[in-house]
Write a structure and sequence with these properties.
Order of helices and strands: HHHHH
Shape: elongated
């Protein structure tokens, strides 16, 4: 059976320029450097900022843990370098196509708020943009090639981010 290309379903590969945490983390680290040396604008000070930030960090870690456990329960490996065998659409994947990356977002934004660093918070959005351009779009194209209409339907019905 042909899928309109010369690629056999088992030969479909995902090529990423770097690991997703690195792609997301570089802009965030640069934001921290900007905060320390150039722009020390604040967000929310005191215990309110620490509390809100802490809540976001904890939520992000739980979201990532839930996503990993859901993937493992379906026999899937969360590592992006490993081939995808199963399209997981349960657990946190019911609400977002990228719960692990959404967890990155929550953790980084939470840290920025907790340490009261606007430059870090702004840099989180550059991290999201980099992750979207360099990883997520490639993953989505890979999943369309791998799962076809099943992924396209899932993509139409489920948001990319939280």
């Amino acid at each position: 059976m042909s899928n309109g290309s010369n690629i056999e379903p088992d030969e479909v590969e995902l090529h990423l320029p770097a690991l997703p945490p690195v792609i997301f983390g570089v802009p965030v680290i640069l934001g921290a450097i900007v905060h320390v040396f150039i722009w020390r604008s604040e967000i929310i000070g005191g215990m309110i900022g620490v509390s809100v930030g802490g809540f976001l960090v904890i939520s992000g870690f739980f979201l990532i843990l839930w996503a990993w456990r859901t993937m493992r329960a379906h026999g899937e490996n969360p590592e992006p370098a490993e081939p995808t065998k199963v399209l997981v659409v349960s657990g946190p994947f019911k609400r977002t196509r990228n719960p692990i990356y959404s967890g990155f977002l929550l953790i980084a934004a939470g840290i920025a708020i907790a340490i009261n660093a606007m430059a870090v918070l702004v840099s989180v959005f550059f991290g999201v943009a980099a992750l979207t351009a360099l990883v997520i779009r490639r993953e989505e194209a890979y999943l369309v090639r791998k799962f076809g209409e099943a992924y396209t339907k899932y993509e139409r019905n489920t948001g990319r981010w939280i």
